[in-house]
Amino acid sequence: MIPTSTPIKLNFSNKPLAAAEAVAIFASTKELLQADLLASAERAAGLRLLSSGVFKGKANEVTFDLVDGGKGKLRRVFVVGVGPADKATSESYRQAAGALAKAIRKHKLAAITVSVPDGRVEEIATGLMLASFNYTEYKGTASKKKSDDADAKPPTITIVSAGAKSKASFERAVAIASGQNFARTIASRPGNNINPPSLAKVAQQMAKEVGLGCRVLDEKQMAKLGMGGILAVGAANKTTPPRMIVLEWKGTRKSAKPLLAVGKAITFDTGGISIKPAASMGRMIYDKCGGMAVLGFMLAVAKLKLAQPVVGILTSAENHISDTAFRPGDILRMYNGVTVEVTNTDAEGRLVLGDALAWGIEQYKPSAVVDLATLTGGVVVALGKTMAGVMANNDSLVADLQLAADLAGEKFWRLPLGDDQRDLMKSDHADLVNSGAREAHPLQGGAFLSYFVPENLPWAHLDIAGVADTEKELPYYGKGATGWGVRTLVEWASKHA
Question: Which of 48, 276, 385, 422 is catalytic?
Fold first, then answer.
């Protein structure tokens, strides 16, 4: 069974239901939003909270009142704010649903019926699933309080909406959010659990369950192909050698060229000989999040059964330290023949991506390529932790991705990519260096990768270092991996489908 760390049961109904122990209604600052599928007592409770001023309708505000639930029991009626109705966006509803999910957890509800406005089912289902994510694979008995019920069942959340397209929207949301939470689950697994070979097994099992093709290139096959970048990065640990993991969705448009998504999956990054500071190294389990976004994307594509053919590549290695580790000063020959002088072993992601891009493009001849990677600390300095950076060789592709990101509620900002940036990567002793001077640091990764993509092929590089994980609670993300990029990739591929 594919793990998603989503401890809820999410159901859908397009007809009024007998209310559970609790009911939720969404409201703007002025009115309840489509509560007609609820009983009069629950609507009255919501109106009472709104008209009395106890509930203001502010974004992500949650409060409740009590009504007679019959048989001597009381029922809670939650009202969830989305802010002013004329300013509420899809993201407003995702975040409001996230606030509701936290309230469900706080009040330890076993069952709740959620009345959803027409046209908002997908956003609310998405927010509920993402905010309910709870990674507990390593939580043992020492983590459980005496008051906790270890056998407690996951809450049942039933979304009720009468819209004609509501059921299809619900099913789409569940497919995509399942992919994203799967990505977050595997991203959360520590380095002593997930390494390149074990990640390959996870991908193979997932592919088998949902009908994806899967092939895995091991270190011997990559050596024959001349993939000097990924082999160098993974050379330090002989027990967990690198892997190139390829997932294929053939779709129904047999004549269409595939879309290609490539993700950096460094399962742990010490920085190598150019070792990282100890204070930040523990979070390097998240250096595989670009690859995990591709993994979750491919799961969602298969669940949605998109017509568009899609290929996902996870390029995976561990960047360790040993007597066989690659060194500053080494010169590597990449799959496409480009030579690279290593100036910093902590700039390893672009090396594994370079081989994957060059090989994947040659092998699958895609119509467009997107890669995702936690590539540079510089992009975090430049853009903070609310948006990714994108560098690209094609304006139309960026426009497509912008539309997809807007639909998904994920943000990015375009950074320049031209001869000025590409010249920063020139070497005196080889074709390229893998890391240049401090100037334009967030631009160097994309500039380096451009040497592994044909100029006439639409390509975009998403640096997700600032958004792949979070150290604070966000509206529908808890601390840890976010799965950023899964929804944008799905919207991008869906447009082509």
Answer: 276
Distance CA 453, CA 43 (A): 58
Beta strand 432-433 with 339-341 is parallel
43 catalytically annotated:
no
Alpha-carbon span 154 to 7, nearest angstrom: 5
Nearest residue to 187 via CA among 484, 481, 472? 481
Phi first, then psi: give them for residue 102, nearest 5 degrees: -65, -35
DSSP 155-206: PEEEEE---TTHHHHHHHHHHHHHHHHHHHHHHHS-TTT--HHHHHHHHHHH
Q: Which residues of the chain have pLDDT under 50?
A: 147, 149-150
pLDDT of residue 150: 44
**Selection from 307, 301, 303 nearest residue 252 by Cα:** 307
Structure tokens at 224: 């024959």
Q: Which residue has the tokens 């700039």?
A: 347
- Kindly report the pTM of this predicted structure: 0.97
Please say whether the beta carbons of 397 and 460 come within 8 A. yes
Under a CB-based contact definition with an 8 Å cutoff, are residues 352 and 316 in contact?
yes
Classify domain 178-496 by CATH number.
3.40.630.10
Residue 266 near residue 288 (C-beta atoms within 8 A): yes
Backbone CA torsion sign across 357, 361, 364, 366: positive
Residue 224: in which H helix or E strand, if any?
helix 219-225
Residue with tokens 């010249």: 423
What is the CATH T-level fold of the domain 9-142+151-160, as seen in this structure? Leucine Aminopeptidase, subunit E; domain 1 (3.40.220)
Domain boundaries defined on the chain: 9-142+151-160, 178-496
Q: Using an 8 Å Cβ cutoff, are 123 and 33 in contact?
A: no
Buried b (16+ CB within 10 A) or exposed e, 340-363: bbbbebbbbbbbbbbbbbbbbbee
**467/412 Cα distance (integer angstroms):** 10
The answer to whether 120 is a known catalytic residue is no
Q: Is 317 exposed, middle or buried (0-12, 13-18, 19+ CB in 10 A)?
A: buried
Neighbours of 483 (CB within 10 A): 28
Per-residue pLDDT tens digits for 220-237: 999 999 999 999 999 999
